[in-house]
Amino acid sequence: MFRLNKLIKSFGSIQNFTNWEKDVVKASTPILVDFYATWCGPCKRLTPILEQKVKEHPNVTLIKIDIDQHEQLANQNNIEVVPTVMLFQNGKKVNNFTGMLPPDQLNKFFEQIPKQ
Description:
By secondary structure, the protein is of the alpha+beta class. It is built from four helices and four strands; from the N terminus they run αβαβαββα. The chain has a four-stranded mixed beta sheet, covered by helices on one side. The termini are far apart. The relative contact order is 0.22.
């Protein structure tokens, strides 16, 4: 079990992240997982953008996972670069990106998420 010490409040459903399988893989709503590090400049710039995008998708839950505090979980998900953002729908990873995307590519990423 992994405890997440920092959970960004999403504007959709929100729950405390306690178990990857339960809270991400078995979630009934889209889950956006942001693997980040506190020392990462692009991660800091991406956070407010992700928060704004999630506002536009009220059914999405955003979970931020600090890779330095959750190394085992980062390794299990093959995280080699931060930020890495993964989208899960119906328990399956359907898309992901690494680094800071240009606005048009980030918009395309979010267009695939049903708004309701």
